[in-house]
Specification:
This protein is mostly helical and 128 residues long. Helices cover 38% and strands 0% of the residues. It has helices spanning 26-33, 39-45, 48-63, 71-80, 82-89. It starts with 25 loop residues before the first helix and ends in a 39-residue tail after the last helix.
């Protein structure tokens, strides 16, 4: 047998000592990483709703094969799924619609619509 200096050495650890990819769940990984996060994120993750949402996003990323050590892959995934994440994010927030006036716009110097005969600025528009 010829010695090859370029061949990688095989790990000589026992099978029970070898780490398995699927053994630790997202929750376990999250608990380990919380200490490394800035204080602002630690405070937000104490809220169970925020923590559960964060874990759901992480599970979806993991199912799509995103490498958590690659910031670029995570940002790309977030950008691709931005619309659906925003829709899921605030279900209790009501949809805001713009108010559109149907009648003509009343100017300050136009006659008042109440029928007094005065200019709008001297009648109903005082103080506006």
């Amino acid at each position: 047998m010829i010695w090859n200096p370029f061949k990688k050495k095989e790990q000589e650890t026992a099978p029970e000592q070898q780490p398995t990819q699927g053994s630790s769940s997202i929750a376990d990984k999250l608990e380990k990483e919380i200490d490394a996060l800035p204080d602002m994120f630690k405070q937000q993750l104490k809220d169970p709703k925020v923590k559960e949402r964060f874990m759901n996003i992480a599970r979806r990323m993991e199912a799509d094969g995103v490498n958590f050590k690659s910031i670029r892959q995570m940002k790309k995934w977030m950008k691709e799924h931005e619309a659906e994440l925003r829709a899921e994010g605030n279900p209790e927030q009501p949809h805001v619609e713009t108010v559109v006036h149907e009648g003509p716009r009343i100017g300050r110097n136009d006659p008042c619509p109440c029928g007094s005969g005065k200019k709008y600025k001297k009648c109903c528009g005082v103080g506006k």
